[in-house]
Amino acid sequence: MANKSEKKVIVTQTRSSIGRSDKQKATLDGLGLRGIGQSREHALSPQVAGMIQKIDFLVKVEEVK
């Protein structure tokens, strides 16, 4: 169960997945992003942080206050 003090982030896709590797496309899909401009809110777990780090040039990350 999610911890109340757990940080949350909003991840927004800013660049296209066309021409990207299958791993990068799978990472976008794993984050729930399927198109430019689409956003999802995630709890900032080590797994999500690693996914964001792998595709940081395709997404924008904002902390939820």
Task: Write a short abstract of this structure.
The protein has 65 residues and is α+β, with helices and mostly antiparallel strands. Helices cover 28% and strands 25% of the residues.
Describe the structure.
The mean pLDDT is about 95. Helices cover about 30% and strands about 25% of the residues. The chain has two helices and three strands. It is an alpha+beta fold.
Task: For this entry, give a set of tags.
alpha+beta; 28% helix; Ribosomal Protein L30, Chain: A; 25% strand; three-stranded antiparallel sheet; 2 helices
H/E element order: EHEHE
Number of helices: 2
Computed over alpha carbons, the radius of gyration is 12 Å
| Separation of the first and last Cα atoms | 20 Å
Large-scale geometry: globular
**On the 0-100 scale, what is the average pLDDT?**
94
Structural class: alpha+beta
Please give the structural blueprint.
Elements: E1 8-13, H1 22-30, E2 39-43, H2 46-54, E3 59-63
Antiparallel strand pairs: 1-2, 1-3
